[in-house]
Amino acid sequence: NAGVTQTPKFQVLKTGQSMTLQCAQDMNHEYMSWYRQDPGMGLRLIHYSVGAGITDQGEVPNGYNVSRSTTEDFPLRLLSAAPSQTSVYFCASSYSAFRFDNSPLHFGNGTRLTVT
Amino acid sequence: GENVEQHPSTLSVQEGDSAVIKCTYSDSASNYFPWYKQELGKGPQLIIDIRSNVGEKKDQRIAVTLNKTAKHFSLHITETQPEDSAVYFCAATPSNQFYFGTGTSLTVIP
Fold first, then answer.
1. pLDDT at B95
2. Which of A43, A71, B13, B110 is the most exposed, having the fewest neighbouring CB atoms within 10 Å of its CB?
3. Min CA distance, A36 vs chain B (Å)?
């Protein structure tokens, strides 16, 4: 098993450009989520999904879109990049959306995004 | 939503000493409290967790304690080693969302 795979590892965008951060898991996990990590602010939830076809907003959803057409993939789209979106982005998944104590979060290794 | 506070933000200890990191949470519905370790350039990895119906859990040199009444939980690392140097995050889960603390950068000095 590869676990949670994120691509790309690094990306530089100009303000206003759009892009998609990819996330794939091969563990048949029901729950998938996206976080951004900024210095001194911990990990903040952007969007999450409890199964294919179901998504919901987290703490900081503005400027981001997600979709979940398959169990394995959960891409994060930046519609019009802004310097405030410069951050490290992590995708994480869990077997169960409602029993994390039996199935904790597994994280990918992150995508470092810079918007100039 | 849930609010998780974590202290200290940085911690330096001599090799062999103990390290303690503390977190508080606000939502009494939170029922699961994991701790994650993040090494440079990597994603966070689960090191220990505790459910709300348990007061203490230990795994070798690592232990977590939970005080539901006071809404706080702590990570204890004994006999620290240089490879324990990393950033540690606590989290609370009142529903199907994780709320993370702001992290503690632990440095173990050989």
1. 80
2. B110
3. 11
